[in-house]
TrEMBL record:
<keyword id="KW-0805">Transcription regulation</keyword>
<comment type="similarity">
    <text>Belongs to the LysR transcriptional regulatory family.</text>
</comment>
<dbReference type="Pfam" id="PF00126">
    <property type="entry name" value="HTH_1"/>
</dbReference>
<dbReference type="Pfam" id="PF03466">
    <property type="entry name" value="LysR_substrate"/>
</dbReference>
<dbReference type="GO" id="GO:0003700">
    <property type="term" value="F:DNA-binding transcription factor activity"/>
</dbReference>
<dbReference type="InterPro" id="IPR000847">
    <property type="entry name" value="LysR_HTH_N"/>
</dbReference>
<dbReference type="InterPro" id="IPR036390">
    <property type="entry name" value="WH_DNA-bd_sf"/>
</dbReference>
<dbReference type="InterPro" id="IPR036388">
    <property type="entry name" value="WH-like_DNA-bd_sf"/>
</dbReference>
<dbReference type="GO" id="GO:0000976">
    <property type="term" value="F:transcription cis-regulatory region binding"/>
</dbReference>
<dbReference type="InterPro" id="IPR005119">
    <property type="entry name" value="LysR_subst-bd"/>
</dbReference>
<feature type="domain" description="HTH lysR-type">
    <location>
        <begin position="2"/>
        <end position="59"/>
    </location>
</feature>
<protein>
    <submittedName>
        <fullName>Transcriptional regulator</fullName>
    </submittedName>
</protein>
<keyword id="KW-0804">Transcription</keyword>
<keyword id="KW-0238">DNA-binding</keyword>
Length: 303
């Protein structure tokens, strides 16, 4: 029978494709990590990693082992939780868009604590970089993102909600008195876009092209907060999720307009491993997200 500790070391090396990083994560000496991987390879009779100088890559056998190793480690953890009657500290790792976190977590967190008081919740606001790898390797349990749906082997992607996008302009802009903005209104106006609206970028560019309007001084930025500040400073206009500017619109620091024509929306995505069983904590967190985004609470997040 395979040693679970060796499998855990294997998964840690595979997650970062680095023996050194695995040693730091596990608080082992590098030689211990090397010895454990060698012992696992000898036990299985197959190489799991290719060592190419300082680079480490999974072999075909190593890639095949990943899923089964994670299932075995998950099963051990689940067994411990069952035997301890749920009293053990459980960790749930969630990667979430910062803007979505600001929007939904004040409502979700207190209810989640009520359902899973012993769970240690680890929230990270990284971008999608490395997300597929982290979900496959169990570094991340769930991800909540705002953007274009995607597909990846082994992952399940649900669209929880379609968030309305609005055009924002500074309050002193001539456009601020309008309720809607047409493509022709953007002639000569700098446009600032975030990754949250890249899913509708094609629609925006098509509408501008049909109106014979060229994009002036396009700026792409990953931060909604930076985009809002730039628009307030009169550096251009933007398209953002409506919930991200509710406070600024109320305070009249920004004006919000609807896009004329086909409505612009950005999907809210819940991503998880499709074959990994959900822990009670993960199931509770998902249930609360579905309640928030599926029953109208997304527009009443302060309640």
């Amino acid at each position: 029978m395979m040693d679970l500790q060796l499998l855990k070391t294997f998964l840690t090396v595979a997650a970062g494709l680095s023996f050194r990083k695995a040693a730091e994560t596990l608080n082992y000496a590098p030689s211990t990590v090397t010895a454990q991987i060698k012992a696992l390879e000898e036990d299985l009779g197959i190489p799991l990693f290719d060592r190419l100088g300082r680079r480490v890559l999974l072999t075909e056998h190593g890639q095949r082992l990943l899923h089964h190793a994670r299932r075995m480690v998950d099963l051990e953890a689940e067994t411990r939780r069952i035997l301890l009657d749920g009293e053990a500290s459980v960790e749930l790792a969630v990667r979430i868009s910062e803007s979505l976190g600001i929007h939904c977590l004040p409502w979700v967190l207190p209810r989640f604590r009520g359902r899973s008081p012993a769970t240690r919740l680890n929230l990270t606001t990284h971008s999608q970089h490395g997300l597929v790898r982290d979900l496959r390797h169990g570094v991340t349990d769930l991800a909540l993102l705002l953007g274009e749906p995607f597909s990846a082997a082994g992952l399940h992607v649900d669209v929880l909600h379609r968030e309305r996008l609005v055009v924002i302009v500074p309050p002193e802009s001539p456009l601020a008195i309008r309720q809607t903005v047409h493509p022709a209104d953007l002639e000569g106006v700098p446009l600032i876009l975030t990754r949250h609206v890249w899913s509708v970028r094609r629609l925006i560019e098509q509408a501008l092209s049909e109106a014979h309007v060229g994009i002036e001084g396009l700026v792409e930025c990953s931060s909604v907060e930076i985009v809002k500040r730039c628009v307030m400073a009169g550096q251009g206009i933007s398209v953002v999720p409506s919930f991200t500017v509710q406070e600024e619109v109320r305070q009249k620091r920004l004006a919000s307009l609807d896009w004329a024509g086909e409505p612009l929306v950005a999907p809210v995505l819940l991503v998880r491993h499709e074959e990994r069983s959900l822990s009670p904590a993960a199931a509770a967190f998902i249930d609360l997200l579905q309640a928030f985004f599926g029953e109208g609470r997304a527009s009443e997040s302060s309640t």
